[in-house]
Structure formats: structure tokens, C-alpha cells
Amino acid sequence: DPENELTGSMLIDRQSGNEDRGICGLPFTRQSDNQTVYIPMNIIGNLYVSNGMSAGNTRNEARVQGLSEVFERY
């Protein structure tokens, strides 16, 4: 958090019903030095957003299907 806006209380897992356990972190392996680092689940859950998947018989057909999905949602 380069701007120091993130506090520990924002990372507590409230979805489990057990806030006493604190911050739920998932282990990842840092590629530069092979060390295990723990990333808070609340950060990871907010990073991945998808408008869905698309497929087609050709690349252009798949692009049209993907754009159609976006247009349908918005």
C-alpha cells in the first residue's frame, strides 16, 4: 500500500463468522527468491473480476461474442 490507506482492520476475514482469527492469508511463492509470502485473502478476492468468457469458431467470432457479453451487462 504505497499511500498507507490500508489498515489491518480492513483485512480481517468477516465472512467466516470468526473475526477472532484475524487476517486470513494465503501462501504464495515469491519467484525472485523462492520465499513463501502470505497475501491477505481480502486483497486477492477484490483483484479478480471477470465479464465472463467467450468462444467462437474463429478469433474474430470469439471477440464479437466477448464484446456482446460486455454490452449485455452494461
UniProtKB/TrEMBL annotation:
<dbReference type="Pfam" id="PF02624">
    <property type="entry name" value="YcaO"/>
</dbReference>
<dbReference type="InterPro" id="IPR003776">
    <property type="entry name" value="YcaO-like_dom"/>
</dbReference>
<protein>
    <recommendedName>
        <fullName>YcaO domain-containing protein</fullName>
    </recommendedName>
</protein>
<feature type="domain" description="YcaO">
    <location>
        <begin position="1"/>
        <end position="74"/>
    </location>
</feature>
